[in-house]
Amino acid sequence: MSALGTIRSGAAPRVKSLLLGSRFYSVFRRVLPSRRLAILRYHAVCSPDAGYADPGICVSPAAFEQHAAYLAAHYSVLALPEAVAALRRGTTLPPNAVAVTFDDGYADNLAAARVLHRVGLPGTFYITAGCLAGEQPFWPAEIRALIPAVKTSPLNLMADGRSVQIPLGDDVQRRAAIRTISRLFKAHSIPARESLREQLRRAAGAVRVPECMLRWEDVAEMQRLGMTIGSHTVTHPNLPNAGEIDARREVRDSKARLERELGTPVTMFSYPNGGAERYMTPEVAHLVREAGFEAATTSRNAFAGPDSDLYALERVQVSERLEDLAFALEVERIALQPHPRTHEVEP
Ligand SMILES: [Zn+2]
């Protein structure tokens, strides 16, 4: 195991806590400031047991308050469009530059936007434009709501003419089933995904999917607070598997819908999904550019810089602990590649 690997394993939590409690980071930021851009990638800001999002993509509201205060105190937090403009022009970023982004459009993001506003930070919120409150359920949350209601095991699904059997015998199998079905949804076209969703709904019976997404008035309020609103497609497909016609529609229609509802240009895009599953291709990036977006972020865990492709911007995945965030920003940046995290594959 490499020296860095050793730091990240057993001793890591204690080392990270000691580093955060010392003056090391503040000296380090002054002596050797970051010249690159850390685009932080948040999702839900809720308790990990809230149920509507994978626990691996949840940061608790208390932790988020800490993150926001720490970033405000120690970093040059830029609005993403401002950072993108600097990268495009080739002008120097301020030292220790950070941009804060959120994927999906969870209802809890309104409170996160208010926290950012209170400490004077900008943020970018990527909205799944067809899945706001009262519209089509956001499928990753719907799967999580339906699986506990399925009474038979195994669950039989037909995916593009192929039978898939998913055991639901105990809690471990049910958690695995959520991952398996999520992968099935990502691996198929949008019509095939909708067929799978219908089969799952029939198997679950009458289940009310709890509302967990923002309302349009919330998004408008976030915009009034100075936040940037970006697109995360209409229905969160895995774009390379959606086919060119549907992928183009998802990209274009999300922009048109957001602009119609909000009355301002929407220029930032975030590709849904990530990690091991192929979630973007040069062809998909071309569709994003063709639709008029100025930049797009990925889930590739790294720092962005002048050498980045503006339609494939790297981000830094964020998890609960402030110690981990500070470690990623100050130690992993030296190691060039931030540590890949296991939940990177989630939405
Ligand atoms: Zn997403």
Summarize this structure briefly.
With 347 residues, the chain is an alpha/beta fold. The protein has helices at residues 3-8, 12-21, 24-31, 61-74, 80-89, 109-118, 139-146, 171-187, 190-204, 216-224, 239-242, 244-262, 282-290, 322-332; strands spanning 37-42, 76-77, 97-102, 124-127, 155-159, 162-166, 228-231, 268-270, 295-301, 313-317. Helices cover 43% and strands 14% of the residues.
Mean pLDDT equals 92
Helix content: 40-55%
Tally of helical runs: 14
Determine the structural class based on helices, strands and strand pairing.
alpha/beta
Sheet having the most strands: 8 strands, parallel
What are the bound molecules? zinc ion
Anisotropy-based shape = globular
**In angstroms, what separates the terminal alpha carbons?**
30 Å
Counting DSSP E segments of at least 2 residues, the number of strands comes to: 10
The residue ranges in which pLDDT falls below 50 over 5 or more consecutive positions are 1-10, 339-347
Helix-strand pattern, N to C? HHHEHEHEHEHEEHHHEHHEHEEH
| Percentage of residues in strands | 5-15%
Radius of gyration of CA atoms, rounded to a whole number: 20 Å
Please describe what this structure looks like.
This protein has 347 residues and is an alpha/beta fold. It has 14 helices and 10 strands. It has helices spanning 3-8, 12-21, 24-31, 61-74, 80-89, 109-118, 139-146, 171-187, 190-204, 216-224, 239-242, 244-262, 282-290, 322-332, and strands at 37-42, 76-77, 97-102, 124-127, 155-159, 162-166, 228-231, 268-270, 295-301, 313-317. Strands 1, 2, 3, 4, 7, 8, 9 and 10 form an 8-stranded parallel beta sheet that branches. Strands 5-6 form a two-stranded antiparallel ribbon. Strand 8, helix 13 and strand 9 form a beta-alpha-beta unit. Helix 2 crosses helix 14 (322-332), helix 4 packs parallel to helix 6 (109-118) and helix 8 packs antiparallel against helix 9. The longest helix has 19 residues, at 244-262. The protein is globular. It starts with a helix and ends in a 15-residue tail after the last helix. 44% of the residues are buried. The model is unreliable at 1-10 and 339-347 (pLDDT under 50). It binds zinc ion.
